[in-house]
Amino acid sequence: MTTPPYPLRPEPAQKRWLDRHSLWKIPLGCLTLFLLLAVFLAVLFTVIMTSFRSSDVYKQAVARAAASPEVRTEIGEPIRAARLISGHLNVSGSTGNADLSIPISGPRGKGVIRAVAAKSEGVWHFTVLQVNVEGHAESIDLLPTQSPTEPDS
Asked: Which residues make Cβ contacts (< 8 Å) with residue 142, sequence separation at least 6?
């Protein structure tokens, strides 16, 4: 008599680790949900911060602060904007408004750019653009001062 190529009594199938340790299903499921939520929030945060950084109002505010001699004296060069920006930015075509607080730092100190602007016909017009330097009570105004018009005599 010849032996068959397969065993007459098959060995029981090996259970998976998760089937053998069923109490781990709930914590592993919660951990998976937590990791997915963390990835979603990280992507959302990155998209929002990138949209702030790529806006014209942000670029103009940081450029004006970096060009200001008073800001360079107080904070030092190079001036770097921090990653976390707070405020709101609303743009709809050629109109919009913004209210941003942009933390900046340099070798001599830290500060915050406060920018409030409105966009009309594609051009941003700042109503407030100032830098509050840490440790100083006075803020540095970055808007050009308007001289009062003199009446013709």
From this structure: 61, 64, 65, 68, 71, 126, 129, 130, 131
Q: Are residues 108 and 135 part of one domain?
A: yes
Structural domain tally of the chain? Answer: 2
For 66, the domain range is 55-141
Q: Cα(58)–Cα(86) distance, rounded to whole angstroms?
A: 11
Domain shared by 45 and 116, yes or no = no
Asked whether the beta carbons of 83 and 102 are under 8 A apart, the reply is no
Beta strands in the chain (DSSP E): 80-81, 86-92, 95-105, 110-120, 123-133, 139-141
149 belongs to a structural domain: no
Q: Is 112 inside a domain boundary?
A: yes
> Which helix H or strand E contains 43, and what residues bound it?
helix 25-53
Q: Nearest Cα to 86, choosing from 60, 128, 119, 48?
A: 48
- Residue-wise pLDDT tens digits, 78-90: 899 988 899 999 9
| 87 neighbors 33 (Cβ within 8 angstroms) | no
pTM of the model: 0.73
